[in-house]
Design goal:
By secondary structure, this protein is an all-alpha fold. It has one domain: MFS general substrate transporter like domains (Growth Hormone, Chain: A, Up-down Bundle), CATH 1.20.1250.20. It has 18 helices and two strands. A two-stranded antiparallel sheet has the order 1-2. Strand 1 and strand 2 form a beta hairpin. The longest helix has 38 residues. The mean pLDDT is 90.
Length: 475
């Protein structure tokens, strides 16, 4: 139910649309000069805001916000990520970042006119940062849950009694990790569908109300609060070991990460995967942000159109996550193979955008392409998120879940300090959003090659289990 409410519609979807809408309304057309409107019928399609001593395109301002957000997430994951493995710190950490995200969403009710675009930027960043943290610290519970389900315990007992081979045991354990990850992702996508349908109940009857977007955000956030609060009420106590003597929650993370990084030779596939995912997340997250900017421009920041597009993605995401899981379970396909299938589409999305440099007929210049993008994204990228988490779970030493999922979150979020800053510099120089796609295509191809050819998940899992027997602080 927590994941059902934590479905990204508010913090990553509507809040971005509202921020970009206010920023565009506050900006001016650089071709016509200050005082002109970016939304005029004869506008050039370019829009700039006062920034420092000069101006910046609205697209660049949004990407700067993303880059700063990822930098803050990096600080969070490195400073306190692994601290969540000790005692009940992880439980309270998730609660705090969730409440911050809820608060930022409710505060968007104040975003009522274009002059408040700086506040919109701040609230978008706070929501983005806290939402990213909730994903990492909630997903860190999955490996521990998967190790203790009835099915896993049954196969462990059979393995200990010599009734099944090690290979069969490892396959079944991997399948159980995939089950937890895929079913939880499915619930998130179901919440995605439900909350978008609820949003229509506000957007359609109140579409002429100037505050309809703000009211929609309030409804979406309240849905998450109502269904998400019960995790904190009913979750079972699963405390980690006590904090080592002489350590504190703010410094132990840095120490463990430093020691772990020095031992990359003992966990070569884990760290190779983290490197590959660092690049892949950079390419995918920045591609998504750039397409969202183009989509909002094409649909003139319409929450209603965004909701219909989101529904197309949400429905296909739900179908795909369940479909991929049943295919994998039926044919006993490895997690990595399933992940590779999703990677192919990850690479093709920025490639399609790149085509828009040379022609206006395709390459995210038409409304139908954004419909196609949302449907294709739903079919392949929802399983991508589930399988990327499962691979990380398989390469994580048992008992160090938050520490390594903190590194995973670091790879996912810290990498994205690079992409948005590179892309906004390209947009500043060229004046075209589409010139950012070649860089993103190159990054996703390089990342996919690393993961496809340099990560052995089966060997990496064995290395992780051996590493867990001693842990990082003893070395």
């Amino acid at each position: 139910m927590y994941y059902n409410g934590n479905n990204s519609v508010g913090p990553l979807g509507y809040t971005l649309t509202l921020f970009q809408s206010l920023a565009t309304s506050a900006g001016y057309d650089p071709v016509k000069g200050p005082g002109s409107s970016c939304l005029a019928a004869d506008a050039s399609g370019k829009c700039v805001l006062p920034w420092g001593g000069g101006t910046k395109p609205v697209s660049s301002v949004i990407l700067i916000g993303n880059g700063v957000s990822f930098a803050v997430m990096t600080l969070i994951f490195t400073s306190i990520g692994s601290s969540a493995d000790y005692g009940t710190f992880g439980k309270w950490l998730l609660f705090v970042v969730t409440c911050i995200c809820w608060g930022a969403q409710y505060a968007t009710i104040a975003l009522t006119n274009p002059s408040r675009w700086p506040l919109a930027m701040a609230l978008y960043m706070i929501g983005y940062i806290s939402y990213g943290a909730t994903l990492v610290f909630y997903a860190a519970a999955f490996p521990r849950l998967a190790r203790n389900t009835a099915r896993t315990r049954e196969i462990q007992e059979k393995y200990a009694a010599g009734e099944v081979s090690q290979e069969a045991f490892e396959l079944e354990e991997s399948m159980e990790r995939n089950r937890v990850s895929n079913i939880s992702t499915t619930h998130s996508n179901i919440g995605y569908v439900v909350v978008l349908v609820l949003a229509l109940a506000v957007l359609i009857p109140l579409q002429s109300n100037p505050l309809v977007d703000n009211y929609t955000l309030m409804l979406v956030n309240t849905y998450w609060v109502v269904v998400g609060i019960w995790w904190f009420v009913y979750q079972q106590p699963r405390p980690g070991p006590p904090l080592p003597k002489g350590e504190n929650y703010l410094t132990i993370g840095w120490k463990q990460i430093w020691v772990a990084l020095k031992q990359y030779k003992r966990l070569p596939y884990t760290f190779t995967y983290l490197l590959g995912f660092f690049l892949l997340a950079d390419g995918l997250n920045t591609t998504g942000a750039l397409i969202a900017i183009c989509q909002n421009d094409k649909f003139v920041f319409s929450f209603l159109d965004s909701t219909y597009l989101g529904l197309s993605q949400a429905i296909t995401s739900t179908m795909a996550t369940l479909g991929f899981w049943y295919i994998q379970r039926y044919w006993k396909i490895s997690t990595k193979t399933m992940f590779v299938v999703t990677n192919v589409v990850t690479v093709m999305i920025p490639f399609w955008g790149m085509l828009g440099i040379w022609t206006d007929k395709i390459g995210f210049h038409n409304k139908w392409e954004f419909w196609a993008y949302n449907i294709v994204f739903g079919f392949f990228q929802a399983p991508y998120y589930a399988y990327s988490q499962t691979i990380m779970a398989e390469l994580t030493p048992p008992g160090y879940d938050n520490m390594f999922f903190g590194l995973f979150g670091l790879s996912n979020r810290a990498s994205s300090m690079i992409g948005p800053n590179v892309i906004q510099a390209i947009i500043d120089r060229t004046g075209s959003n589409w010139m950012g796609f070649p860089f993103l295509f190159a990054v996703t191809v390089a990342a996919s090659m690393v993961i496809w050819f340099a990560v052995d998940v089966k060997k990496g899992s064995k290395d992780a289990n051996e590493w867990a027997k001693t842990g990082p602080l003893e070395h």
